[in-house]
Structures are given as C-alpha cells and as structure tokens.
Design goal:
Layout lengths: L1 H5 L29 E2 L6 E2 L2 H11 L6 H42 L1
Antiparallel strand pairs: 1-2
Helix pairs in contact: 2-3
Bound molecules: zinc ion.
C-alpha cells in the first residue's frame, strides 16, 4: 500500500523513511530558496524558464495557450544556448586536436 504514496513523485530526490503525500517533502529544496512550483504536479523549480520547459514537456496536453507560449519562448532560448555550447565545444576540440598535432610534429 505504500507504493501509491511513493509513486507520487517521479523518483528524483525522494526522501527516505516516512513518506507522505506532501510533494514538498519529495524534493530536497534548500530552506533559503524560494522555488516556483508546477501547478499541475507541485514539483519545485529554480526559475520560471525551467518551470515553463517542464510544463511544455510533461504537461503538454493540459497547458493553457499562455503556458504554451512561455514554453515555446523558453525552448527557443535554450536551443540558442545549446547551439552556442556546441560551437564552443567544437572549437575547443579543434584547438586541442591541432595543439597535439603541432606538439607531435615538433617533438
Ligand atoms: Zn508538473
């Protein structure tokens, strides 16, 4: 019978021992933080952008038009950040590759 209460969270950061239905206990949120919480499942998030991404991914079939617009905006911003990260990672790999190539040619 404790299976139903343990499945209320999705497995991330679940506490051990005395489980309750209160979702605030299912996540390890520092006491000095003020998280934003999902209105559908109660999961806490650090920022509104992360909450918008969560709603668009997990609750895509029930979110409102405003929430979908927020998801699209957050998704586009995250895609841009990922694109820049990939370019920087590629540049670092190229520098390392040619760096080792030059060292090998000289030694
Ligand atoms: Zn949620």
């Amino acid at each position: 019978m404790t299976d139903a209460t343990q499945r209320s969270g999705d497995g991330f950061g679940e506490t051990h021992g005395d489980e309750t239905d209160d979702d605030r206990t299912a996540y390890d949120v520092p006491s000095d933080e003020t998280p934003v919480e999902c209105t559908y499942c109660g999961r806490p998030f650090e920022s509104d952008a992360l909450l918008a991404l969560h709603r668009g991914q997990v609750h895509a079939d029930v979110i409102t038009d405003d929430e979908r617009a927020a998801y699209d905006s957050a998704h586009e911003a995250e895609s841009g950040q990922l694109r820049r990260f990939r370019l920087k990672a590629l540049a670092v790999l190229v520098v390392i590759y040619f760096g080792f190539l030059m060292v090998y040619a000289l030694v």
